[in-house]
Amino acid sequence: MTEPAESPPHASEPAWLARALRPITEVHPGEAVTALLLTANVFFLLSAYYVLKPLREALILVLASGAEYKAWMSGAIALLLFALVPAYGKLVDRLPRIKLVIGVSLAFAVQLLLFYAALAVPGLRANLGLFFYAWVGVFNVMVVAQFWGYANDLYDKEQGDRLFPMVALGASVGAAVGSKGAKLLINGLGESSMLLVAAGLLVVCSSLFWLVERRESSQAAKPTAAAVEAKPKAGSGGFGLVLSHRYLLLIALFAIVYNWVNSNGEYLLSKLIKADVDGLISQGRLAAAEKGNAIGAAYADFFFYVNIAGVVLQTFVVSRLVKWFKLPVAFLFLPALALANAFVFAFVPIVALAKAGKTAENATDYSLNNTLKQMLWLVTSPDMKYKAKQVVDTFCVRIGDVFHAGSVYLLVNVLSFSVTRFAWLSIVLAGVWLVLAVAIGRLYHGFEERKEKLGA
């Protein structure tokens, strides 16, 4: 968005730093410090979310019908985002990007302090579960989308192709560290402490944004984050941008279908794990009282292997796959994996095979796919990076959750589909996902060949 009028203060950056990062990706001299600051920023951001996630579950599940409420909260969150995303777009039009990203981050931090105060009031705490669950659902998608919009705005395409795999490593490690940190906080300081820690992490993120901007921006920065005209054109909001451009519309459809397929896969795996444990109980190999522990242990192993594989892929594999295959081909890996797993659920629903397939799928999702999703926006205008990206990464993702919940209700609760029959929905959707991935890759390649940006 902003092009420095004078050389940024990179001369003081030691040359060895770029060389030290080469096992992860190719880093040119003068790029290492900013890339590391961004990596640390998204690390703290994801740590904050995963610190809050257990508290979110605890507050809603203590309600009498908490589990049932969870099933329908995706719809409520989607409605909230339908109102909040246009409001965010108005901020994009009016604020410089640094004030936008810091202001939104600090606003969420202040809201966490308000939740902390509310937890101390018994009458408020008893009714806080639904509100906090919805808030975390909005917070997670909005701040992550904003971070990647800023990173896309900061780097050109060539830099993003090289550096995003390293920056995304911060998200993978942050998720793992935040999950572990949440358990330590609960056992050591109590659940309310998690709100203060998360608020503090958002303040750290704001400081890192300021440091990056100080290094990379000049005094001649454009007046607003979107670099729009003084009077924005009608229909220039996020939803209008998505509906006006085929490339953005395809990305939006991809976000919906991808999230729908992923949620279906998680549901199918949970059904197989539960059926496997029930089988052990019926055979007398497991006591009925140990059912919860057995399911928890199965998921603990699953999450452990997913996190380890994801970090390894992100650290040593993703940048090389992007370099060798380029985005249009690499973008097909995850839908192909999801399609293969859907066939496993449909034809050989064995829990060990399903867990192995979902481990590979989720690890690829958290590493390669997460990086590629952010790279899609390198060929878009600054306006789209902030406004349209919020629509895709927030509203469309939650709509995917809504469609998943609706399909479970219709096919399982009403029509009584088995696991193998329900898996056919994922087979069809994964096929649609592959078609969308091919179409998006072709458009991306076209922009790349012509060296142009959509909407610029």
Which features does this protein show?
disordered N terminus; single chain; mainly alpha; 456 residues; globular; 16 helices
Contiguous helical run count: 16
In whole angstroms, the N-to-C terminal distance is 10 Å
> Residue ranges: pLDDT <50 for 5 or more in a row?
1-9, 219-223, 228-235
Tell me the radius of gyration.
22 Å
The residue-averaged pLDDT reads: 85
Give a verbal description of the structure.
By secondary structure, this protein is mainly α. Helices cover 79% and strands 0% of the residues. The protein contains 16 helices and no strands. It has helices at residues 15-20, 32-61, 66-94, 97-119, 122-125, 129-154, 157-188, 193-216, 238-244, 246-282, 291-316, 318-330, 333-347, 351-375, 382-414, 419-450. Helix 2 runs antiparallel to helix 6 (129-154) and helix 3 packs antiparallel against helix 15. It starts with 14 loop residues before the first helix and ends in a 6-residue tail after the last helix. 45% of the residues are buried. Residues 1-9, 219-223 and 228-235 have low confidence and may be disordered.
Task: Briefly say what this structure is.
By secondary structure, the protein is an all-alpha fold.
